[in-house]
Amino acid sequence: MRFRRRTLEKLGDLVCGNPGSDEPGSEHPKYFPYRSSSYLTEFFQDLDTEWAHDGSTRHRWVADVLEQMLAEPHDSATRPPEIFCRVIDRLMERSEATNEGPDRPHALALLNDVLSREGFEAFYGEDRHCYLRHVGSGQIAVLAANPHRPLTPTEVKRRAQLAAYLDRCSEDELIEEVLLPLFRQLGFHRITAAGHRDKALEYGKDVWMRYTLPTQHVLYFGIQAKRGKLDASGTTGRGSANVAEIHNQALMMLAHEVFDPEFSRRVLVDHAFIVAGGVITKQARNWLGNALDAARRSQILFMDRDDILDQYIVNNVPLPDAATPTATATWSDEPPF
């Protein structure tokens, strides 16, 4: 990924807090703290990097560092390398607000004025970290999207809201309001939902999509989604689905071609996601694994309720409108800034 040199030097001005980096004609930085040589070194050490200022012109040195960060490997042209995203998050720490409140609206506006030249914008998430979003695609560059990390109190609250929504949503809503936004955020492309109103061309899959590897090879995925629990019991309760039904749908999904209009060709699905809004029992996973031959068994991926919730929260995907309480209910119990 490459940013224009002028953009990098403007970002360097903000990191350095140079006079004039905030408002034309200002004698002192107004919204970003001034950082001398030693504080610049400390800034980058806080990010667990080894960059140390060498005494050269500060904003140009920062621009050189940012340019090297943007050259690091990353998974998409719309998602900068994680280290660059961490620089933006560190730059916009709420505790360093100067001459404004902790939401830092003026500093955010100045930063976005610079980033907009490259098609990005910065914003504060509900966890109070600053993220980058690609304006064209809407993809959000996340910080260390580890679904197993401890969640903040705000994230725990959002997770509970999404869990409550999964309890009452329909299968179509699960696909359209939850899964499609999630997989778009995870970097999948050409996400196409078959829908449940017309099953004529579904062939065992509710959604198909593709993912481009860093080597530019393309993999195709199909999704079979079930709203409730997926089990392997002889008698399936209300709101549950039996794995034998999934078996037939998985076979159809893996055997039937999809047409990719962008490449004008028909392709087979490489992997099949079995997604459940409830629990996928261990017995159901084992039964399906034993029913498929070895080649197709390796093509099956599982996602159950906990996987959906964790991925949704750590990737900072906006909750469905129906899952979000009113503004009063959302903020009345928030701790003061």
Offer a concise description of the structure.
The chain has two domains: 5-141, no CATH class; 153-323, Restriction Endonuclease, CATH 3.40.91. The protein is built from twelve helices and twelve strands. It has helices at residues 5-16, 37-45, 58-70, 82-91, 105-115, 153-168, 171-185, 243-255, 282-291, 294-297, 305-314, 327-331; strands spanning 120-124, 130-134, 140-141, 189-193, 207-212, 218-226, 229-231, 240-242, 257-260, 265-268, 271-276, 300-303.
Commentary on this structure:
The structure is a single chain. This protein is an alpha/beta fold and 337 residues long. 38% of the residues lie in helices and 17% in strands. It is built from twelve helices and twelve strands. Helix 6 packs across helix 11 and helix 8 crosses helix 9. The radius of gyration is 24 Å and the shape is elongated.
Strand and helix layout:
Blueprint: H1 5-16, H2 37-45, H3 58-70, H4 82-91, H5 105-115, E1 120-124, E2 130-134, E3 140-141, H6 153-168, H7 171-185, E4 189-193, E5 207-212, E6 218-226, E7 229-231, E8 240-242, H8 243-255, E9 257-260, E10 265-268, E11 271-276, H9 282-291, H10 294-297, E12 300-303, H11 305-314, H12 327-331
Parallel strand pairs: 6-11, 7-8, 11-12
Antiparallel strand pairs: 1-2, 2-3, 4-5, 5-6, 9-10
Helix pairs in contact: 1-3, 6-11, 8-9
Protein name: Restriction endonuclease type IV Mrr domain-containing protein
Organism: Actinotalea fermentans
